[in-house]
Amino acid sequence: MHKVPKSVARLTDVRILQLSNNFLTSLPIELQSLKHLTELNLGNNSLKEVPSVLRNLNSLRKLYLFGNHISILAPEVLEELSDLVLLNLNHNQIAVLPAGIKSLRNLQTLSLQDNQLVELPVEIGFLSKMIEMNLTKNLLVHLPREISRLTRLVRLYLARNRLNSLPEELAARLILVENRRRFSVVHRTMTHYPKLSLMLSQCGHCALCLQPFLTTWLECVVFINLRKEMKVRGSQTTVPIRVLLCSYLCFNKKGHPYFGIASV
Ligand SMILES: [Zn+2]
Fold first, then answer.
1. Where are the strands (E) in 38-103, listed by range?
2. Which of 76, 90, 149, 233 is the most buried (most CB within 10 A)?
């Protein structure tokens, strides 16, 4: 199929649409009638950009665009895709990830395997819900420090790039999380690296999300009322206790009792 027929407009109740393995170079404007579409597969076609009609699909959560000829991600289209949880752009020709990527604030899975990325924008740090990021086979030389803000990130694939190092805190947090799983490769091989093991044993834990961190944290205080919490009698009943939080992500959460300590 080279073109999606305009009669697609009648499929107003469709939730999942598979259009992969065709020769599509564009999509008809009529596609915007599919207001309930949550998943769209456009993999292995001949698209050169993310079709702008997708801006109107407000229910879209999963978008597959692998195996096309996409080289540019237009920020004005990304802006309207803020409800996406999965975006697969594997096997395209994307060299630049625009700062507008931060619009995809609900994204949990981002796949950019086999593209031409030389660097990532610092705005990647805004994608705070990210769980899995696949950057295999690109041209990345370094990663921005801001990637360490992605505290929910569990899987990060970086094979076949040009990286010499990882931001230290990011590497430490990933290893610490993996090391907690008894059957993970990291946990099983850790005994062979006693120095690393010793270094990681000095990690702290976030008072709020309980996740581990190594060298970067926020120092806070919590005020404890001794009379109320510990039934201690006396004149000085409220004392400050030092606690550490893993990130501003945790610090900015509402409803916790921790106060930041201003640094001079
Ligand atoms: Zn935390």
1. 39-41, 62-64, 86-88
2. 149
